[in-house]
Amino acid sequence: LPQRLATLATAAREEAWQSRQQVQAQRQEVAQLREQLGRARQDGERWALALQRAQKEALEREATRGAEQARQQELVRDMKGRLLELLREKDALWQKVEGIDTPIPSPAPHSAGLCARCHKDFRLLSRRYNCRLCQGKVCHACSVDVGKQGRCCLLCYQQRHPHVT
After folding, report:
1. Which residues contact 152 (CB under 8 A, 6 or more apart)?
2. Do 149 and 129 form a contact (C-beta atoms < 8 A)?
3. Phi/psi at 76 (nearest 5 deg)?
4. pTM of the model
5. pLDDT per residue over 112-146, tens digit each?
6. What start-end ranges are recorded for coiled-coil regions in this protein (predicted)?
7. What 3-state DSSP class applies to 129?
């Protein structure tokens, strides 16, 4: 019996020692898990703060975008109103202008010695041309060559070609 008690005591000691080892290993594991949990909580807090910042920035951008869109819509509305005003003005001016006839160039004086436009004397070096439209006598400086048709005075040319200055 004493031997059996000694064997049982030895087995119990060994079992107690193993239990202590297991408890110590579990304590270390618990410490590691607590450390991991702490890091995970810190990461979670950082992610939550980052998410809050991103949401705040998104709301600010959305508010800015909404204000800009409203401003642009108002600008478009104003531009459409101004366009209508300009169209009305154009129509009113068109109606005023429509009744006005283009003036016919005044007949040139039939004085053979003077240009009908600049009144310069025709001499040996200043040639005289007949305007093919108003039949006035004009000098080289006051006339325009229109090709095969001959020359015409500047006034008649400008009335026929208003886009040319």
Report:
1. 131, 132, 133, 134, 143, 144, 146, 160
2. no
3. -65, -40
4. 0.37
5. 678 888 888 887 677 888 888 888 888 888 888 88
6. 16-43
7. strand
Domain range holding 43? 1-101
Number of domains in the chain: 2
Same domain, 48 and 85: yes
Instruction: Examine the fold and report which residue of 80, 101, 122 is the final residue of a domain before the chain moves on.
Output: 101
Go through the chain and tell me how many residues it has: 165
Identity at 45, one-letter amino acid code: E
d(CA 98, CA 44): 79
Q: Provide the Cα torsion 94, 97, 101, 105; round to 10°.
A: -120
Q: Provide the β-strand partners of residue 152.
A: 144
Residue 162: strand, helix, or coil? coil
Same domain? 2 vs 25: yes
Closest CA to 108 of 88, 124, 122, 96: 122
- Identity of the amino acid at 23: V
Instruction: Give me 135's structure tokens.
Output: 């039949």
**CA separation for the pair 162, 57 (Å, rounded):** 60
Extract the tokens encoding 143. Answer: 């006339």
- Location of structure tokens 């025709």: 122
Residue 77's φ and ψ, nearest 5 degrees, are -60, -45
Q: What is the pLDDT of residues 46-95, one digit of tens each?
A: 999 999 999 999 999 999 999 999 999 999 999 999 999 999 898 888 87
